[in-house]
Amino acid sequence: MSDYAGDLPPRQAWELLASDPDAVLVDVRTSAEWQWVGGADLSELGKRTLGIEWMTSAGQPNARFVEQLSEAGVEPGAPVLFLCRSGHRSAAAARVATAAGYGAAYNVTGGFEGDPDAEGHRGTVNGWKVAGLAWRQS
Questions:
Q1: Predicted TM-score (pTM) of this structure
Q2: Which pLDDT tens digit goes with each residue over 113-137?
Q3: Where in 18-130 does DSSP place strands (E)?
Q4: Which class is 6-76+87-136 in CATH?
Q5: Burial group, residue 16, by CB count within 10 angstroms (0-12, 13-18, 19+)
Q6: Residue limits of the Rhodanese domain (predicted)?
């Protein structure tokens, strides 16, 4: 048995966000990543992505992560999907959220940028951007 609801590929995550009005997307990357790399754009679904850092820009764990989920309005019974760069931090966030009573909590596999390709570049193998889903860069 998994310690969170499961892993969803980006397109399946989009479909859940589109079909369930209570479902929320939480981007757990750092604020620098949101600013410089961009993020998921849910505006056509009438939603916004919640940004709650899993690790701070200084590389420290966010001790207020669960508290910030509540402050952002995430309801304990609502489906919550976690997204990071490649799917590793978001899996950890889904585990912690589940343990705190949130969920169903899901990890978006491949994250926003995906795994590196043979040349070490992200954004070409898998992930939210490669799936052709809406995103925006500030």
A1: 0.95
A2: 999 999 999 999 999 999 999 999 8
A3: 24-27, 39-40, 50-51, 80-83, 105-108
A4: alpha beta
A5: middle
A6: 19-124
